[in-house]
Amino acid sequence: QVQLQESGPGLVKPSQTLSLTCTVSGLSITTDYYYFSWVRQPPGKGLEWMGIISYSGSTRYSPSLESRTSISRDTSKNQFTLQLSSVTPEDTAVYYCESDMEYWGKGTLVTVSS
């Protein structure tokens, strides 16, 4: 049974860096041809894809967020992480990690506020 679980602070101050971790169980993040993404949903808005890391560790980001986004992984812990820098209140959203649009975490609300 594949499960993804997001973790990280629920409140981040403006201009700081938002950091979230996705812990994957039941599937190795190095399994060939599996991809792992971060997706977010601001209040009252649709889903926004942020970026992806592949089974080999290569990354790709949404052009609109690329300058502020970094996705990395820790294969020893079977985790991948999201870092979003210089956050503003507009980055307030429920953040999801997912794999191949098939497996999703439950999501975690991150509020950007002073």
Task: Write structural notes for this entry.
The chain has 114 residues and is mainly beta. The model has no long low-confidence stretch (mean pLDDT 97). It starts with a strand and ends with a strand. Helix content is 0%, strand content 51%. It is built from no helices and eleven strands. The strands form two sheets. Strands 2, 4, 5, 6, 9, 10 and 11 form a seven-stranded mixed β-sheet that branches. Strands 1-3-8-7 form a four-stranded antiparallel β-sheet, with no helix packed on it.
Question: Main attributes?
Answer:
single chain; 114 residues; seven-stranded mixed beta sheet; four-stranded antiparallel beta sheet
Summarize the topology.
Blueprint: E1 3-7, E2 11-12, E3 18-25, E4 35-41, E5 48-54, E6 59-61, E7 69-74, E8 79-84, E9 93-99, E10 103-104, E11 108-112
Parallel strand pairs: 2-11
Antiparallel strand pairs: 1-3, 3-8, 4-5, 4-9, 5-6, 7-8, 9-10, 9-11
